[in-house]
Amino acid sequence: QQQVKQSPQSLIVQKGGISIINCAYENTAFDYFPWYQQFPGKGPALLIAIRPDVSEKKEGRFTISFNKSAKQFSLHIMDSQPGDSATYFCAASMQTGANNLFFGTGTRLTVIP
Amino acid sequence: DAGITQSPRHKVTETGTPVTLRCHQTENHRYMYWYRQDPGHGLRLIHYSYGVKDTDKGEVSDGYSVSRSKTEDFLLTLESATSSQTSVYFCAISEAPQGPRTEAFFGQGTRLTVV
To answer: For residue B96, what is the nearest residue in chain A, using CA coordinates?
Structure first.
């Protein structure tokens, strides 16, 4: 059972456009929501993360929007660039054990020049 | 890649054979993790370690065992490989339980094919 549901599976955006990836969860014990970026042949790398006590976090062109009541969070990439083309994973964890991360299924983003 | 080396990077093995994947770190981080990445599933935790000789199961541990005899090395063993274990395996490390104040760093992965 997938603890974190992610959509869409793939996304094609024009350069300069906005890329939006959505995730949803059920377990209200989750208290940390990171996004990872993965380029082909590489391991995932932390991009940006949010705690549920805030509704939005922005770092440069990347913004996480968090809706605690709806148990949803999303990644917005403003002014998308070809270099942003990668696979993006949302994840969630709770403070237990090693705070194990539960990942979404991933979104392959392609930004067309 | 934060001082993480996975070996081998690619391996093809036959069904029923034992396979060991190695993760070596130079960061002296306490926590080490093994994930597998499969289309339609994202990454799923297999096992993790919170110190030398201290390990615990993750989400998909059946068919896998791990060992950590030194801080820097975390081994993942498939006792008898099956085709369902064909996957890309990632090792990750973190100083403390991964979370808001502690980032987990991932290796470059090992692509394992079981034929």
So the answer is: A98
Residues of A in contact with B103 (CB under 8 A): 46
Q: What one-character-per-residue DSSP string does B7-65 give?
A: E-SEEEE-TT--EEEEEEESS--SEEEEEEEETTTEEEEEEEEEETTEEEE-TT-TTEE
Size of interface A-B (CB pairs under 8 A): 65
Interface residue A89 vs chain B (CB under 8 A) = yes
pLDDT (tens place) for every residue of chain B, 115 residues total: 569 999 999 999 999 999 999 999 999 999 999 999 999 899 999 999 999 999 999 989 999 999 999 999 999 999 999 999 999 999 999 988 877 778 889 999 999 999 9
Q: Do B52 and B113 contact (CB within 8 A), yes or no?
A: no
Contact A32 B99 (CB under 8 A): yes
**Could you say which residues from 19 to 78 on chain A have a Cβ atom under 8 Å away from some Cβ of chain B?**
32, 41-46, 49, 51
HEC secondary structure over B63-94: CEEEEEEECCEEEEEECCCCHHHCEEEEEEEE
